[in-house]
Amino acid sequence: MKFPFRITFENRTEEVPKWMPLATSLGAVVAAFIINGIVLWLIGSNPFRVYKFFFNASFGSWGAFSDIVVKATPLILIGLGYSLAFRMKIISIGAEGQFYMGAFFASLVVLVPLVPLDSPKIVVLTLMAFMGILGGALYGMIPGILKAYYNVNEIITTLMLNYVAVYWNNYWIFGKYSDAGFQMTPTFDKVAWLPRLADLASKYPFFSGITLHLGVVFGLVAAILIWLILKYSRWGYEISLIGDNPKAANYAGINIKRNIVLVMIVSGALAGLAGMSEVTGVVHRLQEKISTNYGFSGVIVAWLAKLHPFAVIPVSILFGALIVAGREIQPSGISFLIQGTILFLVISSDVLLRYKVRISRRQEEVA
Amino acid sequence: MTITTGEFPYAVEMRDIVLRFPGVLANDHVNFTLKKGEIHALLGENGAGKSTLMNVLAGLYRPESGEIKIKGKPVTFNSPKDAIASGIGMVHQHFMLVPTLTVTENILLGLKEPRFIMRLAKYDKKILALQEEFGLKADPSANIWQISVGEQQRVEILKTLYRGADILILDEPTAVLAPQEIEELMQTMRILVDQGKSIIFISHKLNEVKAVADRLTVLRKGKATAEGIDPQGLSRADLAELMVGREVIFQIDKKAQVPGEVVLEVDKLSTTNNRGLAAVKGVSFSIRQGEIFGIAGIAGNGQSELVEAITGLRESEGSIRINGVEVSNCSPGKAINCGVAHIPEDRTGVGTAPNLSVTKNVIMKNYTESPISNGWRINYPAAHDHAVDLKEGYDIQTPTVETQARKLSGGNLQKLILAREISGKPQLIVAMQPTRGLDVGAIESIQKLLLEQRSNGAAILLISEELDELLELSDRVAVIFNGELVGQMDASQADLNTIGMMMTGSLRSNE
Ligand SMILES: Nc1ncnc2c1ncn2[C@@H]1O[C@H](COP(=O)(O)OP(=O)(O)OP(=O)(O)O)[C@@H](O)[C@H]1O
Ligand SMILES: [Mg+2]
Fold first, then answer.
1. CATH, domain range B250-339+426-511
2. What does the angle CA B78 – CA B83 – CA B89 come to, to the nearest 5 degrees?
3. What residue's CA is closest to ligand 1, atom 1?
4. Where are the domains of chain B?
5. In the CATH hierarchy, which top-level class contains the domain B12-244?
6. How far A293 CA lies from chain B's nearest CA (Å)?
7. ipTM of predicted assembly, 2 dp
8. Is A333 helix (H, G, I), strand (E, B) or coil?
9. Do A232 and B22 touch (CB under 8 A)?
10. Do B336 and A8 touch (CB under 8 A)?
11. Cα–Cα distance between B85 and B89 in angstroms, integer?
């Protein structure tokens, strides 16, 4: 007995409807929750209770929501950087390392210190942002140059450089700048703290305990800039041309090698700025494990956002929620499980954009 | 030589096929029949819907309405697999082979057998036997990237035969072949029908159709203007009328003119091919303003490498000067800035970005210049207007300029490239096979455009395997053989025979 229906994929003869990419992304997220719900149920817990808990821990109060946005901030910056690289078909997974390098370079401003710590806040923070961007950019440039001029696979180099950055960081926080032997530096002077909404609590009591800091503005501004670049600039045009057909781009006179390096620099700079935002806005010191795998989640964020800069923002908030809720729940791996499922589904769902699925009755078999 | 068996006279019957793309009615109630054992030619201008109709038959597209019968039995194809199961095999206009795999591996790709253990040697033998039977030679253990385009085509045909096809669709197979190879292909087609296969043959050339086809169907703008007629009595003009719906003037109107200053000067140029072997060996020539210099030769004798060296896409030794400026080993961007336009051989792989819009494809060469460029920005409204101008001025058939380039038919894609290159008012035009795969109407307009550029004082390097066209358009011609220019002469003094002999290397003459 054969299954009475057959499922076929047909080439689309009509345009992909505008809502389709959004629908497939949403569908991937919903399906991921359903699949993981089943997993939760199989291991004996009640998925509804777990998800309710998830929701309360993330969107339940203003304080919780602010925590999510704080988590989303580095994801926005990193997701934007990845979107840029992926559009040129550069498969970088190096934001984790660039993030640590950004954090390290920014921290040097306070640790060395590069400016007297009684300078105005704006001077210190601007310099820190600059250093963070520089650190990430340089660290992105290395795999960029290796790929462009020596044809070294960027997946391998960016992956390996992630480890290098983590251990580099560890060396300095253990070896040189350790706070009494702990694996962290002393807390930064307040001059190096990004302003938080909680700072306004004396005037507006509503804000007390709200952790949201200025870093999120970096993310929003960066999203607008990247959007402008992609949509209107000559460079954005070059990126789309290289991404679609590098041979045609070369034929059109575009310097592909330079563009690979450039994209890796900008992508690294965004991740570096995320590192700076994290040390100045959240932990206020350089320490181990400042990233909860942002470099990994950022890849999923970029794909789920279909590499669109504005879509990166809501997607990052969703992932911020997953990270925040993941902290509250045992086993904590559930949150990563969901993230992984989403990535898998969102990439597979691209099939729906390329083909039309038709379910038809099997034709009678002729003997 | 039509074999008609009593049971089912038609191998294929397509009735009232309708297929629509956004903004185009690609097949408008088309009827098409293929008798068993015949070669049926399908003609039509670029974008007429030939490939689309055949894609319907091959199960790639599902028609909006209409019915298909194979060997007398109604069928509905849900996928290419169903079509293959019904004995249909299609060789597409753009080949679908994996370059890094061998011939045998490509043929076996996607089949149920062999399953886990690839005893390739055994299959090599099977494939050799198949080659023997149909006279289709291709070394089974060679990688695809190592073999010529003609061989690749034979592999595509073998692939369909191996899957048991008895209805073959060849989509513009001769467009990529040298004259010699075309002759071989026709021979193969005859063997195939003698063995009981039926063939649909898409072409733009009447002489080819007359040489092999039993019947002929013509499409124009999605409609059939002739269904299954006999090609023999047909003249070139009749056919052109059927295809484009108006008279086509075949006379090339080339005015005598005195060439001006030297634009391109190539001196002792040498370069290697992708495999590092010498491809161009000490070639020297020059082209003046208002002059067309034609290079004849069989594909693979160094033409591509020569063109790439001149346009900055390949490193070389020796000297290339454009208006006196040394440009050898410069970047493609520098060549463009020196006023070099390039109509590349490979229009989908090099000439266009398939997933970007027509607009984004036509600004490829001038996006850094005003008015398309506006400082760091691209002025997209201006780009849009530019694209619309070109679409209208060069008669590029596309529903809108926002349509992706890959949705254009082969010929319209070529028009897009030409429009883009010529609109830049180039000093030097390097054109490689500019009319390949185009319909008579389009060929006429492209030849006109090239001559217009000649009158405007552009220097033109024309590389073509179409000898007639080359001799008619060029002021001077040379033959390239094995990386060397083996003869330069005035086009008016050249005769087909001598050139033909030079192309195969059996005659050399230097001035
Ligand atoms: N996938 C697609 N999406 C949208 N439009 C398409 C698509 N494929 C083809 N078309 C359009 O359908 C029409 C018919 O195209 P088709 O490729 O069948 O032409 P053709 O007769 O094979 O031409 P050529 O001789 O140039 O190859 C063209 O106008 C083309 O732009
Ligand atoms: Mg076609």
1. 3.40.50.300
2. 145
3. B407
4. 12-244, 250-339+426-511, 347-424
5. alpha beta
6. 34
7. 0.87
8. helix
9. no
10. no
11. 9
